[in-house]
Structures are given as C-alpha cells and as structure tokens.
Amino acid sequence: MTEITTAHYVFLSAALFSIGVIGVLTRRNVVIILMSIELILNAVNINLVAFSKHFLSVNGQAFAVFVIVDAAAEAAVGLGIIIALFRNKETVNADEIDLMKW
Amino acid sequence: MYFLEHIWMIPLFPLAGAILMLLIGRKLSNSVVSLICPGVVGIAFLYSLGAVLQLAGLEEHRHELILYTWLPGNTFHLLGGGTATLSADWGFLLDPLSSVMILVVTGVGLLIHVYSVGYMAHEGGYYRFFGYINLFLFFMLTLVLGNNYLLLFVGWEGVGLCSYLLIGFYFDRQSATTAGNKAFIVNRIGDAGFILGMFTMLAVFGSLQFTEVTERAASGAFSVGDAAITAMTLLLFIGACGKSAQFPLYVWLPDAMEGPTPVSALIHAATMVTAGVYMIARSNALFVLAPSTMAVVAAVGAFTAIFAATIGIAQNDIKRVLAYSTVSQLGYMVMACGVGAFGAGVFHLSTHAYFKALLFLGAGSVIHSLSGEQDMRKMGGLWNRIPITFKTFLVAALAIIGTPGLSGFFSKDEILWYSFIAPFGTGWILWLVGFVTAGLTALYIWRLMFLTFFGKSRVSHEAEHHLHESPPVMTIPLIVLAVLSLAGGWIGWPAALGGSNHFEHWLEPVFEPAAAALAAAEEAHPVAHSVSQEYLLMFLSVAIAGLGVFLAYTLFLKKQEVADRLAASYSGIHRLLQNKYYVDEIYGKIFVDGLAKGGGTALGRFDSSVIDGGVNGTAWMTRFGATLSIWWDTWIVDGAVRASAFGVKITSYPVRLLQTGLVQGYALMIVVGVLIFLSYYLLR
Q1: pTM for the whole thing?
Q2: By CA distance, what is B663's nearest residue in A?
Q3: In chain B, % of residues over pLDDT 90
C-alpha cells in the first residue's frame, strides 16, 4: 500500500480540472457548463488544500473556503442568468446564443 | 438805429400771424382774424419803412446783421485749388436792392391783405387763407432779406409752398388742386437748377454769402466768359425761369389763377414771381462775367415777353389775360437783366408790382361784383356800374401800356432803351421784340378794358341782379395802388426828360460790379447813342401803344364783326393762340405721357426683365451651385467616408471571423492559449 503523497492530490486535481475544462468546452447545455465550472473550482480547492498540507500553512485552506463561497455565489448568479436567458430565448444551449458577434 | 438793428423782426411779424392763424385761427371770429393778419403786415411795413429810412441815412447804404451761424460746416477743396469752409449764417442784408424789395413786398402785401378782408369775407377757410398769406410774407421777406443764397433758397422754397397751398385753396375743386400740383412740380425743375447752381458756386467761390461771392467775382480773378461761372449762372437762371415763369417753365403761372384773386395779385403778379428777377439782379456780378448766359437770359426774356403777349390776345378769362400779361412783363424784366440793365429790371419789377396788383385786384373786384363771373364775354358796360373799380383799373391799364407820365412808361422805356444800346448781344433785335410786345400789351389790355367796361352789357340776368360796387375795404387799396401806379414811376424819372432817376442812383452800389463790367464791354463794342435817339424810341413806343389801343378799340368795341371776321379767316392762328400754342398739350404728351408714363412702363419692363432677371439668375446660380455641391458631397465627401469605411471593413474581415459570439469558442481559445504558454515553458 503506497502512501498518498502530495503528488497524488496534484494529479487528482489536474484530472478533475481537465474533466472540467473539457466539459466547459464540449457540452452545449449551459447548466452542464456551470457544473463543469464547479468541477474546475473544486480541482483548484483540492490543489489549495494539498499544498496547504504540504507546506504546513493554513493559508491555502482559508483560501479554499473563500473559493467555496465564491463558487456558491457564482452558481447562484449563473443560474439566475440561465433563467433570464431561458425566458428570453427559450433555450439553454450555448451554441444557440451568439448575439455578441459582429 | 432801432429799425436797422431789428430788421430780423420784420419777417417774424407775419410768421407770428401765420402761426397764430394755423394753430388757433379756427376758433377766432372773422373780425379778429381781419384785425390780426393785416395788422402784423402793417407792423412789418412800418418796420421796413423805418429800416429803409435809417439805411438812407447811413454813409454806406448797406447793413448786414448776422443772427447766428446756422450751418457751421466742413472744410472742402475748391474747384480752382485751395480750400474753403462751408458755413451759412441766419443773417440779413439790407441794401438798396433788398430795401426796394421789402417795401414792395410789405407795402403791396399790406394793401392786398386789406383788400382780402373784403374779398374773402364770404369764403370758407377765412383764417386759413390769412394764415397762408401771412406765412407767404414771412418766406418772401426771408427771401429778400437773407444775406446768402441758402437763406434765399429757404425763402424761395417757402414761397413755393405757400403758392401751392394758396393755388389749391379751393381744394374741393379738382382743377385747383391740379393747378397747385402743376405749379409745385414745374417749380421743382427750376429749383433743381438753382440747387446745382449753388453747388457750383460753393465749388468755385467756397461761399454762398452775397457779399463774399460778389467780392470774389468782382476781384478780377475770373475772366469774362469763365466756363464755371457760365455754368453756374445758367443753372441759377433755370431756377429763375421756374420761379419767374419764363419760357419754357412758365406753364404753371396761368393755371395758378385757380387760386383766390388776391393771391394771384400778391403772389403770382407782384411779389413771388419777381423772386427770380431779384435773384438775377442780386447775382449781377456773376452774370456779367458770363456774356453767353446774359445772351440766353435776354433771349429767353424777350421770347417770353412776346410769346405770352400773343397768347394774351386770344384769352377770354379775365384773370388768364392778366396772367399771360404777367408772364410777358416778367419777360421784360428778365430781358432787362439779360442786357445788363439790372436797375431797369428792378424798377420795372416795382412799378409792375403796383399796376399788376391793381389790375388783378380790379379784376377781382369785377369778379366779386358779378358774383364770380370770370368770362369777359359775359361782361361789358360796367364802367358806370362799378365806377371806382373802373377808374382805378383805367389808371392801371394806362400805366401798363406805358402812357407818358405813368409808372409803366418810365420803367418800360428804360428797359427798351437799355436793350437798344446794350453792349451785350444784338441790341436792336431785342428792342424790336420789346417794342412789338409793347404794342401787343396795349392791344390785349385794352381788349380786356373794352370787353369788360365798355360796349353793351352782356352780363347774365342773375349777375345783373346782384351787381354792386365793392365795399370800401376793397376799393381803398385799389385807390392807393392807383396812386402808386400813377406816381410810383416818378422816382425813376429819366435824365433825358430832365429828371434825376433817383431810383437808379439808389440801386447803383448794388450793381457796381455789373456797371464796371458793362463799361468795359461798352468800350470794346462802342454803341453810338444820343439823347435824341432816346426821345425817338420813347415816341415810337408811345406810338405803338397808341396803335394797340386804337386796334383794340376798333376790333373789340367799334366793329366787333371785323374781329370775328379776322378770327374766322385766320382761324388756324386764332385757335393756336386760344389754345396757348398747345404748349400744355405738348408738355403733356412729352413729359407726362412720354416721360412719366412711358418711363413708368419702361421702368416696369426694366424691373420685370433686368431686376427680376437678375434675381432669377441669382436663384438659378444658387441652385446650380447647390447641385454642384450635392455632387461633391455625394461623390467626394461621402465617397471618402465610405472608402475609409470600406477599407476598415475589408481589413477587419479576418478578425471578424474570430468573433463568433459563441462563449465556448472563446473559452477554447483561452485554453489553447494557456496550453501554448504552458508548453512553451515546459519544453524550453
């Protein structure tokens, strides 16, 4: 049984981050995209906590708590936008929302 | 020297009367008006008399009084080099010439005022009439007392205004208002000449003051026949032609008879119309420097004299005969000035004022007694019905034809004598014209006498019923004027008849420059003359006057059928004379129809073609310019803007492709970018 080292956490975090990024880039549903962003944020959290333990500093953990709060706020605002979007466009597909082009 | 110091007050008396009348006259009763208005003229007459008597007592017979500088002016350049300062004073000059004028104006004016009290008694606008003639006297006195041409011109225009107002006194009559307009408009032509003459005078002499102008003219700085002075005097003479009713500007005077008869007597016979003669006499120093002008003056005067006299023979309106007689007599005066006999001209002016005023007032008395009848064909046999009028009229009729001993004889013979010996022009032709005119004068005046006072009465039944002699207020001025017509010439009793010609000597200082120039001219062209010649000429003119009277007696009293037969066999000439040579019609065609109406049409055409054309052309040009600028705007300005926009559009095309509006696309770019950076750092 090998010991779980900081490197493991980092790899987990990198895997989670990559899954999140791929989700953001490939999924059409905005809700899924939001969820993928949560994944990315949580990958960051794992990274923060892992390095906090590695360097015996509590700063990283405190920062992670901030990120969690931030994620909650972000989810609330994001869902609000999605609802407003749906009311106007009757769609939640990112590729159908392309008003902001030239 | 009270009166001399106060000559400025002389015009003010009639002015006060005029202002009073025109402001509150309507509220005054006729008796108050007839007290005030002749009263102020009487005071003016007394002041004039006092001033003239005091003037006679002076060493040098001239008195100049400057009240104040009326127009302080600018400095300007003279025609002959140098500069002068224009200034005009409100100043008065009393010298022998103006003293004669003020005595005639105020004296005859007073008599006519008194006469008017009777004549106008039953007319409406009594106060208005007196206000106007008082105003007239104010301007006339300003005219003759002014010490410069500008002040003279003020009076000149003022009397023209009063003349207009009084000719149109019966403003409810169309013919009267038209005649007033005619007088005013014809006088404008003359006034234009006068004004130009004054401008020329300013340019040449730099002054308008009589004294200065005379001094400069007589100084010898200007040669005889100087072009500027010839032009100046010709222009001044145009002014005199208008005011003194000389051919071709005489046409207004006969029509001026539309005014009340005292007005005809005062303004259109005795005073205003002599203003032109006065002005020429006043400018004698200038006129003698321009022999060609003198020739024109003499010729116009002589022509006017005979021209008007011939018309006078064929007129039937008693006042019109007298009007043409006035024109003719004014011609005499102008001719006298033209031959250099200024003194004789002014002498005839004063004697004419007496007898012509008397003739007009007598005619007015006749008209008054016949309830307004003016046609001589409806008169006749009046001599014992209105005896005082008849007797005074007889004196005037004898005076005007030059009966020896009466005033007209002296003045007229003096003119004829001077025109015979004149160093200017061809004397004897002028004399012959004057001589024939004397015969014609006798003919038309005695035709008037015989038709009016003798023969069978042709008075209408209605007028016969009211026939009466005029009241004393009218006959007394007639008697006074008759005395003046009888004896007024004695002050100019010629030397040839054993007199001393006080009148001429009195005026000598005024005509000194003229006398000097005349003496020089006479030296160059000596004219042989002797006292016996003078006697012969006198005899001849008396003889032709007698012949005229005899002809009138035969034709218009004894054998009227001969006159009728003559008129019938020479009907062309008769019609020509009766219609006044059709001068009015010719003027009407040329000036009214031709110049005024034709000019109006021409101006209308000019307006619609040239002015409107210009406006339309400008509009077209503006539109054309606008079209050009639209083209410029669309193609050049807009083109530049669009071209730059197009350039931006083209260059922005590849960049634009990146901006899809898809969030995920942008996110992909971020990721790719991050990966690129990462790989750069990792693989370095």
Answers
A1: 0.76
A2: A94
A3: 26
B652, B661, B667 ranked by CB distance to A98: nearest: B661
pLDDT digit string (tens) for B197-246?
Answer: 999 998 888 888 888 888 888 887 788 888 888 999 999 999 999 999 89
What is the complex's ipTM, to 2 decimals? 0.85
Q: Are B401 and B449 in contact (CB under 8 A)?
A: no
What pLDDT score was predicted for residue A42? 93
Strand partners, B93: B64
Of A53, A59, A49, A63, the C-alpha closest to A12 is A49
> Above 90 in pLDDT, residue B126?
no
Q: Which residues of A touch B662 (CB under 8 A)?
A: 94-95, 97-98
- Chain A's closest residue to B667, CA to CA, is A25
Domain at A28-93: CATH code: 1.10.287.3510
Interhelix angle B387-401/B531-553, rounded to 10 degrees, is 140
CB atoms within 10 A of CB B651: 10
Q: What is the total residue count of chain B?
A: 684
As a whole number of angstroms, the distance between CA B417 and CA B412 comes to 9
Q: Give the bridge partners for B88, in sequence order.
A: B71
Cβ contact (<8 Å) for A100 and B661?
A: yes
Distance from CA of A27 to the nearest CA of B (A): 9
CA B616, CA B235: separation in Å to the nearest integer?
43
E strands present in B8-159: 63-77, 83-94
